[in-house]
C-alpha cells in the first residue's frame, strides 16, 4: 500500500518498482523457458535473492520515465528496465564477494555469497548478466530489430570494460594507488555513472527519439550519475549502516580517495546542488512531461539511503 504522505515522484517510483518486481518474479521462476534444458533450483534461488531483495529500482524507473517522454511507456520499456536491473544486481552480487568489496550485508540482508556460497554468487551474477541481454534481444521485447541491436550495443558498452566493470577495476586499483581528482571522476563515471547514463539514453532509443534528444538524455544521465556517486560517498561518511542497509565508512577504512574526502562535506553538497540544476536545465525542453525526471535528480542528490 502506498503511503499517503508520499510525493507523486515517490508514488511513481514505487509503482515502477512493483512492475519490475512482478515481471522479474515471473521471469526468474524455476520453470525452464523455451530452448532451456533445465533451471537448477539453487542457482535460481541465488539469482532471485540477488535481484529480488528490495532496492529502489531507480535505474528501471529512469528507463521507463525517459521512454515516456517520447510516448513509449510500454511493455518493451519494462523489459529493458528489468534487463538493466539484472545487470545492476549482478554487479552488486559480484562486488560483494571477498575478492572485491567483501561485504556481508546488502539492502539489509545477507549478501548472496553469505546466504549461499561464493560459487553460487559467481554463477548467479553470471546468469543475471547473460539473462539481461536475452531479455533485450528477444522478439518478446517488441521493438524493431535495429532498436534492439542499438540497445544491446549500448548496454554492453555501459556494463563492460569501458563502463561499469572497467570502473570496478579502477576502484580496486584505487585502494593501492590513489587517483587524482580527474581519475576519481573517471572512475565514478564508469563504475556508477555508465549504467545510469544508459538508463536515460535507453528511453530515447525505445521511443525512437531524435539524435539530439538522445544526446540530451545521455547528458542528463551523466549529471545524475555523478550526483548518485557523490551522494553515496557522502552517505558513507555521514550515515550509519542500519540506515542505509549496507556497511558504511569503508572508503575511509580502506584509505580510498573520494571527492568527499578530498574536498569535504560542504563542497560536496554544493556540487550536488549544481548537478541537480544542470539536470533540470537539460530537461527544460520537455516541459511538464519531464517533471518526474527532475524530481528524480533531486531525489538522487538528497537521498538518505
From TrEMBL:
Coiled coil (UniProt feature): none
A single Gene Ontology molecular function, please? Answer: prenyltransferase activity
Which domain of life does this protein belong to? Bacteria
Q: Which cofactor does it need?
A: Mg(2+)
Q: Which source organism does the UniProt entry give?
A: Phyllobacterium brassicacearum
Q: Which CDD domains match?
A: Trans_IPPS_HT (cd00685)
Instruction: Output the InterPro entries linked to this UniProt entry.
Output: Isoprenoid_synthase_dom_sf, Polyprenyl_synt, Polyprenyl_synt_CS, Prenyl_diphosphate_synthase
Please give the SUPFAM superfamilies that the UniProt record associates with this protein: Terpenoid synthases (SSF48576)
What Pfam families does this protein's entry cite? Answer: polyprenyl_synt (PF00348)
Which key words tag this protein in UniProt? Isoprene biosynthesis, Magnesium, Metal-binding, Transferase
Name the UniProt record assigns to this protein: Probable farnesyl diphosphate synthase
* GO CC, any one term: cytoplasm
Q: Which GO terms describe its biological process?
A: terpenoid biosynthetic process
The record's similarity note reads: Belongs to the FPP/GGPP synthase family.
Amino acid at each position: 500500500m502506498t503511503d499517503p504522505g508520499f510525493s507523486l515522484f515517490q508514488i511513481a517510483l514505487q509503482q515502477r518498482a512493483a512492475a519490475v518486481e512482478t515481471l522479474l518474479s515471473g521471469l526468474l521462476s524455476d520453470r525452464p523457458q523455451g530452448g532451456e534444458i533445465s533451471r537448477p533450483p539453487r542457482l535460481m534461488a541465488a539469482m532471485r535473492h540477488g535481484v529480488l531483495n528490495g532496492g529502489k529500482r531507480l535505474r528501471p524507473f529512469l528507463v521507463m520515465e525517459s521512454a515516456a517522454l517520447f510516448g513509449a511507456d510500454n511493455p518493451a520499456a519494462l523489459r529493458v528496465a528489468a534487463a538493466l536491473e539484472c545487470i545492476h544486481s549482478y554487479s552488486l552480487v559480484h562486488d560483494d564477494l571477498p575478492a572485491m568489496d567483501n561485504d556481508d550485508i546488502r539492502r539489509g540482508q545477507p549478501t548472496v555469497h553469505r546466504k549461499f556460497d561464493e560459487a553460487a554468487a559467481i554463477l548467479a551474477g553470471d546468469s543475471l548478466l547473460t539473462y539481461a541481454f536475452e531479455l533485450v534481444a528477444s522478439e518478446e521485447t517488441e521493438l524493431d530489430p535495429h532498436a534492439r541491436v542499438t540497445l544491446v550495443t549500448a548496454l554492453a558498452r555501459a556494463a563492460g570494460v569501458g563502463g561499469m566493470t572497467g570502473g570496478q577495476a579502477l576502484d580496486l586499483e584505487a585502494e593501492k594507488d590513489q587517483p587524482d581528482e580527474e581519475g576519481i571522476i573517471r572512475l565514478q563515471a564508469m563504475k556508477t555513472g555508465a549504467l545510469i547514463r544508459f538508463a536515460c539514453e535507453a528511453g530515447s532509443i525505445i521511443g525512437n527519439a531524435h539524435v539530439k534528444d538522445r544526446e540530451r538524455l545521455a547528458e542528463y544521465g551523466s549529471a545524475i550519475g555523478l550526483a548518485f556517486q557523490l551522494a553515496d560517498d557522502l552517505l558513507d561518511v555521514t550515515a550509519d549502516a542500519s540506515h542505509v542497509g549496507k556497511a558504511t565508512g569503508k572508503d575511509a577504512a580502506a584509505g580510498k580517495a573520494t571527492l568527499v574526502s578530498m574536498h569535504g562535506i560542504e563542497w560536496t553538497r554544493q556540487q550536488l546542488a549544481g548537478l541537480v540544476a544542470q539536470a533540470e536545465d537539460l530537461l527544460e525542453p520537455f516541459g511538464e512531461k519531464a517533471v518526474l525526471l527532475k524530481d528524480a535528480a533531486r531525489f538522487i542528490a538528497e537521498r538518505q539511503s
